[in-house]
Amino acid sequence: MTTHATTPHTARPITEPVLAELRASDDAGRPMTAVTDPEGGAPLRCCLRRSAPGERIALVSYAPLRRWAAATGADPGAYDEQGPVFIHAEPCGGPAPEDGLAFTGAHRVLRRYSRDGRILGGRLVTPPEDVETALTEAFTDPEVALVHVRAVEYGCFLYEVRRP
Asked: CA-CA distance, 153 to 132, in Å (whole number)?
């Protein structure tokens, strides 16, 4: 997990046990196909950084709310969705502790969820707005249990932040 020194917000990467499952069979039931990234720049959800040229990565289908719900007993119903995420093809050790919140230099959507897995709303964060400030705002609502930070371009899940 990645925590910024001045905020209680923790960016939660996909954990190694889940990554091991995704490398065997992703959340859509497909086997992983690893490739060598020729250019770099893919947002890796295992270590919350962009890939470097020449790294072995994979694009897998991931259902973040489904996995959170399974661990908490929530039932997200129709809000259960899966989408593409980049991961390292082999274990990478996760993010560096001093990295802070990842992928914050571009437009982001913060999607808020309740304890039962229902969407409570979303917010577009546009630079130079601060993602940390938007997370603090999201968690002022006592009904918000977690927030998904997502890319605007494709709506892809980047990482989850749980109530501090």
From this structure: 20
